[in-house]
Amino acid sequence: RRPTAPGAAKLRRKARVLLDENLVEIFAGMPIPVCDRFKSYLTNAIMYDTWFLSLLNIVDYSIIVGVDRESGVLVVGIIDYMRQYDLIKKLERVGKSVTMVAGQAAPTVIQPPHYRQRFRSQMERYFASVPTPYTSEADLFLVPPLG
């Protein structure tokens, strides 16, 4: 069912969903600049969320980034088809590993701890901490209050 609220058609025309390759392209391979405080908060959230997902043997998750162009507010979350690293995934990993040619990239199906680390490393490349007029050494590691 299509939205019928006032302005819904305009919103549909303006809203776009892009892939991570588009994000890299839009920022010309450069990370998204965020203030120190947000970067610290984001890093901690990703660390704890991916640790929890890894404990549950979950892999195949992704990041979603939303940007409100008018306010500049950035919204980030972990989404996607979260799948347990079960026997099927283990067999898929073995199969892909066996068929790989020397010098080719690492297999895409990896164990949850390795997936977690790869995901965290990628997030470090996607977001860069930049100083702002509101940042001081005293609040570099503060986390915004929840709720």
Outline of this structure?
By secondary structure, this protein is of the alpha+beta class. Helices cover 42% and strands 16% of the residues.
Protein traits:
single chain; two-stranded parallel ribbon; Phosphatidylinositol Phosphate Kinase Iibeta, Chain: A, domain 2; globular; disordered C terminus; alpha+beta; 16% strand
Describe the structure.
With 147 residues, the chain is of the alpha+beta class. The protein has one domain: Phosphatidylinositol Phosphate Kinase Iibeta, Chain: A, domain 2 (2-Layer Sandwich), CATH 3.30.810. It is 42% helix and 16% strand. The chain is built from 5 helices and 6 strands. The strands form 3 sheets. It has a two-stranded parallel sheet. The C terminus is likely disordered. This is PIPK domain-containing protein. GO terms for molecular function: 1-phosphatidylinositol-3-phosphate 5-kinase activity; ATP binding. Keywords: ATP-binding, Kinase, Nucleotide-binding, Transferase.
What does the secondary structure layout of this molecule look like, with pairings?
Layout (H helix, E strand, L loop, with lengths): L7 H7 L5 H7 L5 E4 H20 L2 E2 L2 E6 L6 E6 L3 E2 L2 H13 L12 H15 E4 L17
Parallel strand pairs: 1-6
Antiparallel strand pairs: 2-5, 3-4
Helix pairs in contact: 3-5
